[in-house]
């Protein structure tokens, strides 16, 4: 890596592009995601992803250089702490962000092998969406389909909540409901739609085959387009009617993992 560059103004074109991507929850114009925090920088590098730019505040420059100083093809930029705070999407910024080239996935990646797919149907809370992606990796899901109306995976909070899983778990975003239904049908997958008060209980559901789990939005639940896509399934609870979307997804994924790994 060459000597660190110094930028002193938040009006610099690169920093303006970073701030635009963070504010909109999108990739940059060059197709890079903005990964803020040391943990996400480490996860991007651990995942073997191209990381062409790393921006560090002056106060943590030495720490960042120890992370990326020996890497080739990384452009290290340092900025004053106040400038970094202007660009940052967090209130308590750690002083580091990376521009990362995300993997390119296809439907075949998501539905590969003994498929276990999570379909997010209008999940709009970025913390929930990111936590679901993390649970998907933890319990061996083959991938996720983020339907239209679901929060962007590149929203800063979504990416942080995923704790780096978005760098590794195959997913497609902005998928139309009819395309999702056709894809799982073509792959002969059983679809389970998480719905409170459904007649089928999780304890009676067979999740050891090729299957898809549909998780609806926090406020409205599963959309009409996906409600009839498969078997309605509920998680038995005591004292409460429904669960947080991320918690529900985690329970379903764990049960699927348990059934698939039991000897």
From TrEMBL:
This is RNA methyltransferase. One of its GO terms (cellular component) is cytoplasm. One of its GO terms (biological process) is RNA processing. GO terms for molecular function: RNA binding; RNA methyltransferase activity. InterPro entries: Alpha/beta_knot_MTases, MRM3-like_sub_bind, Ribosomal_eL30-like_sf, rRNA_Methyltransferase, SpoU_MeTrfase, SpoU_subst-bd, tRNA_m1G_MTases_N. The keyword Methyltransferase applies. Belongs to the class IV-like SAM-binding methyltransferase superfamily. RNA methyltransferase TrmH family. Keywords: Methyltransferase, Transferase. It holds the Pfam family MRM3-like_sub_bind. The keyword Phosphoprotein does not apply. Residues 34-106 form the RNA 2-O ribose methyltransferase substrate binding domain. SUPFAM superfamilies: alpha/beta knot, L30e-like.
């Amino acid at each position: 890596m060459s000597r660190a560059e110094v930028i002193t103004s938040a009006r610099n074109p690169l920093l303006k592009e970073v701030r635009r991507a963070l504010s909109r929850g999108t990739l940059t114009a060059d197709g890079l995601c903005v990964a803020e925090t040391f943990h996400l920088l480490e996860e991007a590098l651990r995942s073997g992803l191209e990381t062409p730019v790393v921006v560090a505040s002056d106060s943590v420059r030495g720490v960042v250089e120890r992370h990326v100083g020996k890497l080739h093809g990384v452009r290290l930029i340092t900025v004053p702490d106040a400038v970094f705070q202007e660009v940052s999407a967090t209130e308590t910024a750690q002083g580091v962000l990376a521009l990362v080239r995300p993997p390119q996935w296809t439907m075949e990646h998501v539905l590969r092998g003994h498929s276990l797919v999570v379909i997010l149907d209008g999940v709009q809370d970025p913390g929930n969406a990111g936590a679901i992606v993390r649970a998907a990796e933890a319990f061996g899901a083959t991938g996720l389909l983020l339907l239209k109306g679901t929060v962007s995976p590149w929203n800063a909070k979504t990416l942080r909540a995923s704790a780096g899983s978005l760098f590794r778990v195959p997913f497609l975003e902005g998928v139309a409901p009819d395309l999702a239904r056709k894809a799982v049908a073509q792959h002969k997958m059983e679809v389970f739609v998480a719905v409170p008060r459904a007649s089928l209980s999780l304890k009676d559901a067979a999740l050891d085959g090729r299957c898809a789990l549909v998780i609806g939005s926090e406020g409205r639940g599963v959309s009409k387009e996906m409600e009839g896509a498969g078997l309605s399934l509920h998680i038995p609870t005591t004292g409460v009617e429904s669960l947080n979307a991320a918690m529900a997804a985690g329970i379903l994924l764990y049960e699927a993992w348990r059934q698939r790994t039991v000897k």
